[in-house]
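Morning, I've got a small favour to ask if you have a moment. It would help a lot if you went through both lines with me. Thanks so much in advance, here it is.

***
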Amino acid sequence: MITAAQLRAARALLRIDQRELAQRCSLSLPTIQRMEASEGVIRGNVDSLVKLVEALSVAGIELIAEGAVSSSGGRGVRLKSPPPSAGGEER
């Protein structure tokens, strides 16, 4: 579904910290920290994973699965569109 590396990359593209991501997907900060610290594909509660992926999608992140069409191959993330500005402040 989503790897820890994809999650960290997605958060970096959105320029948000773990706390903001937790708020956006209605999960706890320790849950996000655990997900990012895991190896490979994130394992966990299906409901939590769905909330996470949905929040990333709403924020404009497209997850690229292993074997999906992309210029370089492999897993990854990309922005569907530029991230919305958070009050004009850069984080």
